[in-house]
Each structure stands twice: as C-alpha cells, then as structure tokens.
Amino acid sequence: MMSVLLLALSIAHAQDSSAEAAAVDWKAQEAAEFEKPESTLSIEGGGSYTSGNTEFFLLTGKLAASHRFGRNKFTFGAGANFGASKIDANADGILSEGERTAGYKRNAGRFWGDLRYDRFLSPRDSLYFLVGAFRDVYAGYDWRTHEQIGYSRVIFRTEKPVGDPVAEGETQPTVKTELKSEIGVDYAQEDFVDGVDPNFDHFIAGRLMVSFLHQFSPATSFYDEVEIYESFFDVEDFRMVNEATFSTKLTDVISLKLSNVVLFDNVPVEGRRKVDQTTLITLVADLI
C-alpha cells in the first residue's frame, strides 16, 4: 500500500513539474514576443488621367504607420480619393470649347484619418481605443468624427516555413494564416452638408469586426475585413464596411495591390444612396 502511495505521489509531482515547466515556457515565449520594439511604415498611391475627347483625373493615396514597444502599440492611417472632370453640360456627347474652358468640376472626394492605441494583454489579446475622422461631401458629410473602444482577439494564427532549408543565421521564409475579431462601441458626431435637415446628429453603435489573412507565398497574400455597426437606438440604422485586397510583391519594397471597398449604410444621409464602392489598383511601398 505504501509503495502504491509513493508511486502516485511521484507521478503527481512529475505532472506538476511538467505543468510548471510548460507554464514557464509560455511565459518566456510571451516575454520574447514583446521584448523587441517593432515599427512599420508604408505609402500607397495610384491614379488615372485622360485628355482629348474626354478629360478627367483620379488620384488616390494612403499612409499607414505603426510602432509597438512592449505591450503598447500605436497605429496611424490616413488616405484620400480625389477626382474631377470637365462636364458635358448640355449632354450632347461632345465637350465644346466653352465646356473645356469652364474647367474641372470635382466629382469624387473622400479624406480620412485614424489614430489607434492597443494595450496587449497577451500576444493575441488587446484592449484598444481609436479616434478618427473623415470628410465626404458626396456621401453627405461635411465632417464625421468618431471614437471607439473595444477588445481585439486573434482567434487563430498559423505560420509555416516554406522553401528549402536555409543556412544557420539566415531567416527562413514563412507563410501566415490569421483569423481575428474585434468587438466594441463606436460614438460618432456627424456634421452634414448644407441642405440636410437636421444638419447634425450623433451615432452610437455596437461594432463587430472580423478579418482574415492568408499568404499563398511569402510574396502574395489575400486579406478581407468586415466591420458591422448596429445603432443602439434605431435597429434600422445598420452600417457595414467590407475591404478585400489581393497583393503581390514586385520587389522587396514595392507591391502591387488590388483592392475593393464597399460602404453600406441602410439609413443614408438624405438624398444619398445606400452603397458606395471603390475598386483600385495601386502600388505600395513598404519603407520600414
């Protein structure tokens, strides 16, 4: 009986030691994740210009930057879409000299910027706070500012080495797949263009975001992000943003990117449509 008891105690002690060792390994892995600061900086741009029988131009640009130190991360993003054309005012299918000399009339313009702070609870969990604003008179907004607070979670992440083994000291290429979700609250102050009554409103909503990233190779990836906003006070006031991108590296710094952004507002600003869609092909420079 004593020998059985001693055997049971030794097994329990071994299991406790293994569990403790695993816990230490996990903590060491987490510490290593936050030990080294990390920064990113990229710029993106594209455009189109036509002259002759028709005359128009479109310019688009984005900037994205982030800096993580320890469990803190700041992220900044800004962008603009701007377009104008010379208008066939009498709709006869021809730009007359008078219509050409009238100059360009703006027919697209959206400008936005966001600043976000994340406080990581673990490598996969964080609490975040965001402030941002955009201007889009064609969607009915002189200005729209908003603040968000919420929780972010990486549901799963896999990273696999690819290619032939590399020499010691070299970095092995990898491909990553990641599914991420966020839940929070968004509070917006909406200042509408002239002619909209009422001219100002508040929007308080719950926010749910799901994103998916898959790298087909170290150079080629697909990303899709869906944001859903549901008003706390009007169930009909439902909004959604979906951005899907496909990108491939041309060099170590330059990438070619195809993106499609859909903005849906079930209760749009008076006189506006529910859906805005933008499809772009741009060049992205990863500077850091």
Would you write up a description of this structure?
- The chain is mainly beta and 288 residues long.
- The chain has two domains: 1-32; 109-286, Porin (Beta Barrel), CATH 2.40.160.
- 14% of the residues lie in helices and 61% in strands.
- The protein has two helices and twelve strands.
- It has helices spanning 2-35, 97-101; strands at residues 38-50, 56-69, 72-85, 105-122, 125-136, 141-161, 174-192, 200-217, 220-231, 238-249, 254-265, 275-286.
- It has a twelve-stranded antiparallel β-barrel with strand order 1-2-3-4-5-6-7-8-9-10-11-12.
- A hairpin with a 4-residue loop joins strand 5 (125-136) and strand 6 (141-161).
Helix and strand layout, with pairings?
Elements: H1 2-35, E1 38-50, E2 56-69, E3 72-85, H2 97-101, E4 105-122, E5 125-136, E6 141-161, E7 174-192, E8 200-217, E9 220-231, E10 238-249, E11 254-265, E12 275-286
Antiparallel strand pairs: 1-2, 1-12, 2-3, 3-4, 4-5, 5-6, 6-7, 7-8, 8-9, 9-10, 10-11, 11-12
